[in-house]
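Lay summary. Proteins are chains of building blocks that fold into shapes, and those shapes determine what they do. In this project we predict the shape from the chain. Here is one chain we studied, written as its sequence of building blocks.
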Amino acid sequence: MLEYKSAGEIAAMRESGKVVAAVHAAVREQAAIGVSLKELDEVARTVIAEAKANASFLGYHPSFGAMPYPGVICTSVNGVMLHGLPSPYRLRDGDLISVDCAAYIDGWHADGTVSFTVGEPRAEDLKLIRVAEETLAAGIEAALPGGRMGDIGHAMSTVGRGAGYGMQNDFGGHGIGRAMHEEPFVPNEARAGRGLRLRPGLVIAIEPSLMAGGGDRYYMSSDGWSVCSGDGSRSVHVEHTVAITEDGPVILTLP
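And here is the predicted shape, written in a compact code that computers can read:
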């Protein structure tokens, strides 16, 4: 069932969104050559605790997960597209990392992801990140009251596929609010003018992921959580929680 949020509830989600943004900033600052993904997870735990918030991911156990999620952030490196575990792996020069975080305060969740490089960046990685951010921006711009859900996916795939990158549509965005994952599903690729009518009060997480190799295949890692590009090419994931309002889309996961 769809739940439409009041202005006050959206404001409460904005407070959770600020925590997500603070986690991203802190993790990005600490991410350096030799730092482990586990250590970055500890940084995120500290930020969430100091904000008197809670981690949405910790203990989360969807049907596709091999076990309850053990961290508070997802740390996806290089060929890992989504849901990378915060393992003892230590970052190396030139690594490409996506950091996904969700947090809640007083029962209201927000969810967001950033991608960046560590050490000396590769030009092709910077382009991949830039196009992913442009893809997300196009999806957000299409989240207009009176529009359709398909408009969002169409806008994103136009940018992402137009740049020659691969996309997958099994793991996409979602409604968010009292739970981290609510209805509706938000596709990364869809036909314009189709799907759910967008109404003010709907809050969704929009989260495209791109694969540099141009293919759409992916596979689940043996760790039971990490979603990897099928051809091993480098991948990125970006995300914002967005409220649809009478005045247009409002991003809730900014600082």
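What the prediction tells us: The chain is about 30% helix and 25% strand.
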